[in-house]
Structure formats: structure tokens, C-alpha cells
Amino acid sequence: VAKTDGKRTWRLYRDELHQEMIRRLEMRSALNEAVPGEQMRLRYQPIVDLPTGEVVGLEALVRWQHPARGLLGPNEFIELSEENGSVVAIGGWVLREALRTFVNWHSSPAGASLRYMSVNVSARQFRTPGFVDQVREVLAETGARPEWLLLEITESLVLHDADQVWADLRELRGMGIRIAIDDFGTGYSSLSYLSQMPVDVLKIDKSFIDDILHSTQQMALVETIVSLARTLELAVVAEGIELDGHRQALVGMGCPYGQGYLFSKPVTADEIHQLLAGTTTPR
Ligand code: C2E
Ligand code: MG
Ligand code: MG
Ligand code: MG
């Protein structure tokens, strides 16, 4: 009996593997069609000034309206799109769409107090030759000022391929664009490295915020990152704030900015428009 069971388990496993391979192959080829087929969407999550609750910025978060599978989150396709290179087209679309939308909001009375749009850039996209030129073109095309753009990159991008990446980061910052390290704390940057990195903002990963109310150790860790950022004259944003207790603790340790479900989930452009109209005073 055990033997037949083993065989059946193996067959099930083999079939699942097969299904998974087919799914990935399908997704890969479908991803190449996503931008030309106008299947990409953006959601926006407010970034708030923690002491006042004022919305200061927005993070653009990509979604894929898959023809058969519905609305997919980035965790379901960004890795695949990095593998097949479609992330370059997707990233270009995200940048253009996010800035176009921001310029619209910024020129409306309700959005006049918005300071910036935060855009995630994948490592492969950043390393593609011509990325800096593409950013310059999109700014010119949309009429967005460089100060309105914050590019979120990962710690590992800054740690590897240092020369070209650092040169590009310096060029972008020279244009007036700001750079954030996303998911800070999950990588391996050393203190000495961090102090030299051509970046402006640290975004503390959600995993650090999750436990601050239950673990004095986590609390101390986040406090350390916040004071480190202050020492290095970097701005700091706490991600994944879900509870008012999180907000209070972060305000208490002097963390200036945050984002999370407590304030808003990522929502559509229309919903942001309504949110802004309701919370900011028209000029
Ligand atoms: P991220 O840049 O760290 O973005 C934050 C993620 O955490 C988002 O997930 C957001 O919806 C989620 N989040 C925000 N606040 C909370 C909270 O309070 N609780 C919980 N549980 N989650 C919260 P999302 O939209 O699924 O994006 C996942 C990741 O995909 C992003 O992490 C980012 O690394 C990547 N991504 C998103 N958009 C893009 C894009 O346009 N290009 C590239 N290359 N990557 C993107
Ligand atoms: Mg991000
Ligand atoms: Mg993040
Ligand atoms: Mg994160």
C-alpha cells in the first residue's frame, strides 16, 4: 500500500510541477503583451507626515490585469518579468503613467500640497543601458519636475555592480531626483557603505514594524535605524504601519514619515483624488 501511495504522491507532484512550468511559460509570453495590450494598472498608496497625518507623497504600485487570471499583484509577476526582460517595458510604462498622473494631481487645487511620487525600479530595469536617459525623457514628456520624483531601489542593487550603478545614481541625483532604499534592513549594507551611498531616503521594511509593540528588541532596532538616518541626514519612511500603536511608537522615536494600511491601502487614481479633496484645504 505504501508503495502505491508513494507512486501516487510522486505522480501528483510531477503533475503539479508540470502545471507550474506551463503556468510560468504562459505568464512569460503573456507578460510581453501586457504593455502593448494596455493591461498594466497602477494603484497609489499615500505616504504621510506621521506627526500631522498630512499626505506628502504617493507610492505607485503596479498591477497586471491579466486577460484570464484577473488583477495580479507584483509579487506574482515582477520576478518573471525580470527574467524575461519585460520589466524594462513595464517599468517604463509605470514611470510615465505615475508621473503623468502626478502632474495632473499637482496642478489641481486638492493636490497642490503633494510633494512627490515614489516609483519602484527593479535592478534589471536600472541596469539597462539608457535608463537615466529614459528618466530624463519621461520628465520632459510629462512636464514633471525632477524634485517630484523619488526612485525606490533595493539595497542589493547599490551593493553590486557598484561603479556604473553609483555613477547613474549620482547623475540622477545631480538632476534633482531623489533616491530611496526600499525594504531597508533586509539586505546586507554595512554602516561604512551606507554613509557613502548616493541616496536620500531609507524605507524601513514592514517586517521591522510588525513586531515593535511586542518586542522591545525590534523597537530598539527601529529606533537605531531612525537615529542612524538622522545622523546620515537621510529621510526615513516606515512601511507597513497597520496600527495606531505603531504610529504612536514611531512618532515617539522621531520617525518623520510612514505608510501603511492604517492610513490607506493602495487605491486607484480616482480614490486618491477624492482622498486629497477631502483632507487638504483648497487654495
Ligand atoms: P514595496 O515597494 O515594499 O511596497 C510595499 C508593499 O507593501 C505593497 O505591496 C503594499 O501594498 C504593501 N503594504 C503597504 N502597506 C501595508 C500594510 O500596512 N500592511 C501590509 N500587509 N502590506 C502593506 P504590493 O503592491 O503587492 O507590492 C509588492 C512589491 O512589489 C513592492 O514592495 C515592490 O517591491 C514591488 N513593486 C510594486 N510595484 C512595482 C513596480 O512598478 N516596479 C517594480 N520593479 N516593482 C514593483
Ligand atoms: Mg517600494
Ligand atoms: Mg518597500
Ligand atoms: Mg517592502
UniProtKB/TrEMBL annotation:
Domain of life, per lineage: Bacteria
Identification of the protein by name: Bifunctional diguanylate cyclase/phosphodiesterase
Every EAL domain range: 24-280
Keywords, sorted A to Z: Membrane, Transmembrane, Transmembrane helix
Residues of the full protein shown: 735 to 1017 of 1017
